[in-house]
Amino acid sequence: MLSTMLLDQGFVATDITHQTKAKQEVIRTGAWRCPICTYDNEDSMSECDICGALRNCLVRISQTGDSTAGGGRCKSSGASVMVKSLFASFRHRAPAKSVAFEAKNDAVLIEDAFIIRRNFQEFLRAFSSQKHQNINIAPFKFDSPSPDDLVSTRLHSSKLDSKANFKRLSSLDMSTREREKNILIESELGTEGPNSSSASVARDGGVKERDFASDCGIKPEILVSRMRSVSLSSKSRTGNVNEETGTSNLEYKPEAWMIPDQAEDRLSQLNLAIVGHVDSGKSTLSGRLLHLLGRISQKEMHRHEKEAKQQGKGSFAYAWALDESAEERERGITMTVAVAFFNSRKYHVVLLDSPGHRDFVPNMISGATQADAAILVVDASMGSFEAGLDPIGGQTREHALLIRSFGVDQIIVVVNKMDVVEYSQERFEMVKQKLGTFLRSCGFKDSSVLWVPASSMENQNLVATPDERLFSWFHGPCLLDAIDSLQLPARDYSKPLLMPICDIIKSQSQGQVSTCGKLVTGAIRTGSKVLIMPSREVATIRSLERDSQACKIARSGDNVTVNLQGIENNHVTAGGVLCHPDFPVRVSNHLELKILVLDIKIPILSGSQLELHIHHAKEAATVVKILSLLDPKTGKVTKKSPRCILAKQNAVVEVVLQGSVCVEEYAESRALGRVSLRSSGRTVALGLVTQIMKTQ
Fold it and tell me: For the Tr-type G domain, which residue ranges apply (predicted)?
């Protein structure tokens, strides 16, 4: 009933002028007319029998003493414009005599010739004693704002102390979404008056609350933004992550322990990839170097020599120090990337011995992506060097292109097997001239390329000055000195953790697994939490190993084994990424690439099926759109939407992968933004990720 609602809202009687009373009360014999529906009631009734309106309007007195109506209510009647309009067409009856009746809560009512003083309880008793009335005053409950409030220009409220009201905000039991919705609705209804107060509205099972936006003296728009920020801060870790882009709203700040101490007495780690054509002597060179530096004991070397002679492969003794599998030894080739360690005077070197056979180029890519620098081994013997540079199947050429595409700009060219050509200076210069021309075309600078003639079988020019046969015409550094002359690339400790997973070692213990890889950015330590992508599982670092030795902290550039706990084996895969829990790497299967096409015979068309390699992941890819061709010198668009891409052309294409991969745009992370495209066992294009598009 409207009367009970008006009482519940706290309206009080006030000083009423004779002019206002003349409009509201007409004293006639036997009846009084309702000011709302104009129904003529018996004078013994204190409220309208039709609409329930009180006989007299209850008008509130402001602090200044002026008589005003509650927001949006008719001053003459005390009822809302909407309610009055509901009864505008109701039939009229002849008025009868009415008796004035007014109530006041602890104040004074002035009625023509007398003054009535009553408190609120006396008013209730007097009102309930009227004939035909039994009124139970209780809060009126709305599931949503009432029609009166919607007509009103504003749901007014008093401005209370902000601290007390924010405490009340935290205790509200309506959801955050409900609050924001209500605030937005209220902000659309009108603006707040300076001396206004609001009617209370009961929500959620009769719990009555004031309009908390105006209670706190805060504009609704400001409160909406604050409520949204509170909502975001109350969410879990994944609440700070954009699910589509994988990006985070947080700002990363590295901790003090992540930055290496300059006074720390530890050799800097250098990741060195050994690449080159098959049978150029890469594994033999690596084994010999490790033996000379004491990483392989004499006892182990004697065992390798004995086993190699038993199988009629005595010259493979040093290679077997790294090629440990039975299949590798039987076939006489390296099939997987072997990892070894040694210390030079300047660096702790991680040696990545990569396979040279064309069938295992994907394994070579996986290992060489971790490299800071590379050793390109070429065979000086007649015919072997030329085979490595052959456009079709020459792995010297393909490995050099791949290494450059991985961001390696420092390279040591070891012209191996110089003993076969009797340490000929002419042969060395010819190799240097031909290969040097090709390396310049790949983007290597002459100042970043070191040339070292050597013989791994005869231990010439590896760790010491060679004998007279070589020293008579070559006066450059030996291989070990050339390694020390390399410059470390910049390490990024200020960015969140990123570690592409090169390999996994499954443990028999449930909930434990080990991962291997190189930290691209950031740092980790024992006990840290990491997020495994793309499975989005969180694990704890149980321990760290570097060079098979336990360590507590690993930083950007370190090649480590990370032992995880609290995660199942099937949630960790090679090609995934370990990252900071609050800063996950992006995952997508739809990429825009800027590519350089190599020497190919079949052009790349829209719909071409390729194999995409990115860090340690590989996926089947389809070229869905060729966007444009680019000028190789300026990078400007020369043709839009071409039909095909030919050899040696630069282009921008869109590719869709069969499965999603962990990826970042090249501008954000170089290591996770470089790709290579292969087809039919050959690398056909090298590229960069320019845009990560919506997953399809």
Answer: 267-491
